[in-house]
Design a protein that fits this description.
Strand content: 15-25%
Largest sheet: 6 strands, mixed
Oligomer: single chain
Shape: globular
Radius of gyration: 20 Å
Structural class: alpha/beta
């Protein structure tokens, strides 16, 4: 069981998040991609997945290691001395676990330069408006609601790797979105975990592959062929890969700006939104300062 504001809820689905940023091969701004991946399965499915992932890691020569794609591809830390064929062999062993081991996968990429170009003119102050990782999180939550159709009796609990740089903002945005959309019983909580659980490793793999593809072949102009591992992931029917373009970002930004501007003269509107953000910040502060239950606690 996991605690929320109203007591305890049964965990039926668990969603694991990971963020990745990839720059173009030439370092050009148009290839800069921000990506969020989200993998969803039942608690029972994740238990079986854990065994399959560890077996694949062993088969790929990485028994006892924790996959971190940036370390693997750079050949550093745990993967120091690993060459291209060895790296690719490990990834080939891991990809099939994602085909049969999870219920749903989402991976969304946003061009960083375009996002800032669109949002900057709409900000009266530097901290105004959504941040890029917050927009990705809302997109993932909306897609999960559509594809998984959680209910109060079958909710989705989110997990994310501890990251002091963005953890607070992610928590605030998570609780703000659930309050705004009346999703608090569908998505009761988000829990930070230390690096290591196999679902977080898998989410890191998907985020890296999705971000690399978007950076090279959607937002950038790479002459390379797409990675076979990405094409395999994209072929899975239960996976959705999404890349935002300029028009999507502009439409989202203007819609949000107009909605907020329209309500500025209405005291009840301001009270509502102030209450949502203050409540979200308080809930975030309580959760991050209090004791945290380990995954699997009852």
């Amino acid at each position: 069981m996991w605690p929320n504001a109203e007591g305890l809820v049964a965990v039926i689905y668990e969603a694991y998040l990971d963020y990745s940023e990839t720059y173009s091969e030439a370092g050009k701004p148009q290839g800069h991609a921000h990506t969020l991946s989200c993998l969803v399965a039942s608690s029972e499915q994740w238990e079986a997945f854990d065994l399959a992932w560890k077996a694949a890691m062993k088969c790929g020569g990485a028994e006892g290691k924790i996959l971190h794609m940036k370390e693997l591809m750079a050949g550093v830390d745990q993967f120091e001395g690993w060459e291209g064929p060895q790296k690719n062999r490990l990834i080939r062993k891991l990809i099939p676990t994602l085909e049969s081991g999870i219920k749903f996968g989402f991976c969304g990429s946003i061009p960083v330069g375009t996002f800032e170009e669109v949002h900057e003119p709409l900000r009266e102050h530097p901290n105004d408006g959504p941040r890029i990782h917050q927009v990705g999180l809302q997109g993932a939550m909306g897609t999960i609601r559509e594809m998984i159709q959680p209910t109060e009796a079958n909710p989705v609990v989110f997990f994310v790797e501890k990251d002091q740089a963005i953890e607070h903002d992610i928590f605030v945005q998570f609780y703000s979105a659930t309050r705004q959309m009346d999703w608090e019983k569908l998505f009761p909580t988000i829990v930070p975990l230390p690096k290591g659980p196999t679902p977080l490793q898998a989410a890191d793999l998907v985020a890296w592959e999705g971000s690399t593809y978007a950076s090279r072949h959607v937002f950038g102009e790479s002459a390379r062929l797409p990675r076979k591992s990405f094409l395999a992931l994209e072929s899975f029917p239960h996976f959705q890969f999404f890349r935002a373009d300029h028009q999507m970002i502009l439409t989202h930004a203007v819609t949000r700006f107009l909605a907020e501007s329209t309500g500025l003269g209405d005291p009840s509107f301001k009270r509502k939104w102030d209450g949502i953000y203050k409540g979200s910040r308080r809930q975030t502060q309580r959760q991050r300062s209090g004791p945290r239950l380990p995954r699997g606690s009852k």
